[in-house]
Specification:
Layout (H helix, E strand, L loop, with lengths): L1 H17 L6 H16 L5 E8 L3 E8 L5 E4 L3 E8 L1 E6 L2 E3 L2 E2 L6 E4 L1 E3 L2 E6 L3 E4 L5 E4 L6 E8 L1
Antiparallel strand pairs: 1-2, 2-13, 3-8, 4-11, 4-13, 5-10, 5-12, 6-9, 7-8
Length: 153
Amino acid sequence: MPRRIFLSIALIALQPLLAQTIHTARDLQQSEVKLIAAARTTPTGVAHETLDDFGSYRTLLIVRVHTGPAERHQLWADQMIVNKGTLTLITGGAMQGEHPSGNDPGETLGTSIQGGKQVVLHAGDIVHIPANVPPWVKLAPGATTNYLILKER
C-alpha cells in the first residue's frame, strides 16, 4: 500500500514535466505579426514572447526589425533556430559599453562586439551559443528576421 501511495504522489508531481506543449506554425505566425508591430516601436528593434518557461529551460520567439544591442547571458546557453530572414551573428570577442540589462540577474547589454566570430545565418540554420559568450545580431537595413531561442540553464 505505501508503494502505491508513493507512486501516485510521484506521478502527480511529475505531471507538469510530462505535459506536452505544442506551438503550431499558425500560432507562431500570429505571434510574429504582433511582435513585428511591437519591435517597430522599440529603440532596440526587438520584441519577444516567452512560449515556454520550465524554470531551467525556456523557449522564446524573437522578432528583430533592425540591429539592436549586443547581449551576454551569464547563466543561460542559447540554441538559436532561424525561422525567417537573414542575419549576421557575431559571437565572442569584447562587448563594448557593457552594462546590466535590468531584466534578469547575469544579463547584460552592450553597444557592439569588437572581434569575435561572424557568421551569416538563414532560415533553417541552427547555432548554439554557450553561456557567458556574448552574441550580437545584426540586420541589413530594412530587413526583418524571427527566430526561436531555446534557453538552457
